[in-house]
Amino acid sequence: MTGSEERIRILEQQNRELLAENLRLKTSGRSENDSRDIREAAVEQVRQSNIRYQTIFENSLLGNKIISSDLKILQVNNTLVSMLGCKTKDELIGHHILEFSHPDYKADWQKLQEKLWRKNLPSFSLETCMVDKKGNDFWVSVTSILFTDDGGTLGFTIVENINERKLSQHNLLLRERWFRRMTDIMPQQVWSADASGNIRFVNNQSCAYFGCDEDELLINGWQDIIHPNDAGGCMTAWKHAIKTGSPFTYEFRLRNAGGYYHWFLSRAVPVIDDNQNTIWLGTNTDIDLQKAKETQKDEFLSIASHELKTPLTSLKLYNQLAAKNGSPDKKQEFIERSFSHIQRLERLISDLLDVSKINAGKMNYEIQPFEFNDMVTELTAIVQSTTTKHHIKVEINEPATVTGDKHRIEQVLNNYLANAIKYSPNANEVIICSKVVANNIVVSVQDHGIGISKDDLTKLFDRYYRADNAAMKFEGLGLGLYISAEVLKRHNGSLWIESEPGKGSIFYFILPLNGESLIQENGTDGHSYYYSNFLNINYNPEKYRLEADWVGYQNLESVKKGCMIMLDLLRKNNCSRVLNDNTKVMGNWSEAADWGAEYWFPAMVEAGLTRFAWIYSPSKFSQLAANKTLENVPNELQTRFFDNREEAEHWLNTSTLLN
Ligand code: ADP
């Protein structure tokens, strides 16, 4: 007989005796026969009750056990025996109840049991993890309660295997987490709404855009952040979609955390289960750029038609005059007058064709050596013949043979000269200067015209861009500088501007004479220094920082190369600060500004960069490019501009982030 059976036997015996005693008391005074009958009936009642109890205890689909106050198992049923991977009850009886508990969950269970036995709890239920005989863990729900009988207070525990439910809950949770992650890496705002249209979920992109947390958005919805002009239409369309269950599509402006509106395309589809719409799944896609481009295109089309129509109208006029006027001299005069308009038309059309060639990547270059100064002299003579007001002063220092596409480089210079004349209506001089600097030709065209504001300076090389002060007063399509930048880039050159509103501008470009890269590398140990004609980098072990000295003219290629070397040395020396000295920079690198902000600075921060001191170049244009780069660097990075090296060094030295 097992210990528990023995215990039950004793309990039964005690019960029988108790009942018998009660009956004796109740039946005293009755006949002996009557009393015996009653006693036997009572004993039978107890026996039946015990059988019922045993049957329920044993045959339950839930694991049952009875435990003593020292948490030892007194009795178990077979369900629990097999649940725990045992063969006989003896493998459990007499053992501590927590022996089969998962180590990570023991403490919680123990605590609840203690509370129960101290009578601080009437009962408890807990979901916990157990480990069976073979070492497999599984989830159970445990319910414990105390009861008292003659043998004192005992614990009764029901154990239910909830592993499957728990696993499917866990899988559901995992899926939800993946779903959330997936929506968070999407560039769009992703959301869901219930069948009545109340927002129930938004992804991180939405929270980041609106600058608030998910709960706020769920409570408030988008109504208040839709542009007032779009809100009415949007709500009507949304209500219609909810009512009819048809997909929702709408374009509206949403206000971001900074208070600015962006255009979004919102789309949502209903999810239909059992013929009923249960939920809406939606996205908001930022289409602000497309919208801006559409507007720009429309504006461009109207400007282009106007620009093309003006010379055409003049041509038509001269043609009519020539047809009406019989005198050969007059006819000749009208034909000559119409010539400049034909040239203008030709220029506009060829600019438009060039832009489509650039876009399609089909701009061809005929590269061969040519005498640069001859090209300058010939071109200047032609441009000079088109103006009586301006004198073009040429300053050339030495002969230079350039390898490149003569026609295209001439086009760049022609654009510089034509602009210098066009945008200086009240001046009478334009100065063109070309000089050879360390195997490069550097060309500048200076005027004393309207100048360009700081804000416009770095945008002029964008397609169709025209500064405000020029757009209305001067003819043009805003394509010349865009084409020039492309041509120079293809020749490994670059361009930049120095300008002051009201005082005039100097447009520069630089080209390597042989058409090849400007970069000449002079040495590196691959770890602590790198020397070249455009950048010298040293690791300063006493100050734990990289010191980068940029030299001379820069272009996208040199900036990208230099930056990647800096990143490599930062990683190798495990340092966190950079002294970035641009004092000797001559040209600009505006093209590299976006690349620097989007790719390079985040990579530097990931590599451990925490402080970046930037000493300005004397070139205003270069300063603007530097400002543009630092506008969007990661927040955790500390950056500052300096006019001199001492202050920059001081700032870096006083950093509290020394490593
Ligand atoms: P366009 O002259 O046909 O508009 P460009 O691409 O040649 O096109 O020039 C773009 C813009 O740059 C001009 O619209 C003007 O605002 C500005 N710009 C160019 N050259 C000068 C200059 N010398 N002085 C002032 N502004 C200039």
Give a summary of the structure in a few sentences.
The protein has 659 residues and is an alpha+beta fold. It has 19 helices and 24 strands.
Walk me through the structure.
With 659 residues, the chain is α+β, with helices and mostly antiparallel strands. It has five domains: 1-59, no CATH class; 167-286, 2-Layer Sandwich (Beta-Lactamase), CATH 3.30.450.20; 291-360, Orthogonal Bundle (Helix Hairpins), CATH 1.10.287.130; 372-512, Histidine kinase-like ATPase, C-terminal domain (Heat Shock Protein 90, 2-Layer Sandwich), CATH 3.30.565.10; 521-658, Transcription Regulator spoIIAA (2-Layer Sandwich), CATH 3.30.750.24. It contains 19 helices and 24 strands. The strands form five sheets. The chain has a seven-stranded mixed sheet with strand order 18-19-20-21-22-23-24, with helices on both faces. Strands 2-1-5-4-3 form a five-stranded antiparallel sheet, with helices on both faces. Strand 9 (261-273) and strand 10 (276-286) form a beta hairpin. The longest helix has 37 residues, at 288-324. The model is unreliable at 1-5 (pLDDT under 50). Adenosine-5'-diphosphate is lined by residues 415, 419-420, 423, 447, 449-450, 452, 460, 466-467, 470, 476-482, 505. Adenosine-5'-diphosphate (ADP) binds next to helix 12 and helix 15.
